[in-house]
Amino acid sequence: MIELGKKVVVTGVPGVGKTTVINGAMERLAAEGIAYEAVNFGTFMFDAARKENLVSNRDEMRKLGKDVQKRLQQVAASGIAAMSTDANVIIDTHSSVKTPAGFLAGLPEWVLRELMPDVVVLVETDPDQILMRRLGDASRVRDMEGARAIAEHQEFNRAVSAAYAMYTGCTIKIVRNENFLLERGIGDLVDVLR
Length: 194
Ligand code: AMP
Ligand code: MG
Prior knowledge:
Elements: E1 7-11, H1 18-31, E2 36-40, H2 41-51, H3 66-81, E3 88-92, E4 96-99, E5 102-105, H4 109-115, E6 119-124, H5 127-135, H6 147-168, E7 171-176, H7 182-193
Parallel strand pairs: 1-3, 1-6, 2-3, 6-7
Antiparallel strand pairs: 4-5
Helix pairs in contact: 1-7, 2-3, 3-4, 5-6
The structure holds adenosine monophosphate and magnesium ion.
């Protein structure tokens, strides 16, 4: 039997520190001889969007019309599926994207069919911590919203992730990335990747 790699989708609201937790977990696993490839879904979308001159930075994508976003999403999903690797893969993405037209599912049925994850991880922390992280991040054009709105986005991410579990049979793992406790969050992610 061919042993296929594990596919883990890692999600979380902007600024929660997904990429930081992923990088930390990959480093620890590499030290144990467990290799993961990390794929950033937004980068696949951005490469397509830039070619069409739709945006000049990745944070402009969630403001595009919803049909354009869905098309870019499809391009990214099939591009990632075409990588057809038998390695373990982490996909850095979003359970939902906050757009001017409302929450857009990050993994609608046609995306899930391409990715078929074993696990969907939700990286979360307290909304006020996320607010402070966004304020301190000059490298991105983060949305400025209150702690209430961030809490609501995290709640929606849990709700929509339940649908992903129903569709694929994947498990849902919540990993907290709390202030001063990054190493604990990394450890919790390592546990599902190992
Ligand atoms: P990130 O670097 O993870 O914040 O992703 C950058 C942008 O890519 C996000 O703000 C979204 O516009 C887009 N994006 C990433 N993943 C998805 C997805 N699964 N569905 C729709 N848009 C996505
Ligand atoms: Mg990121």
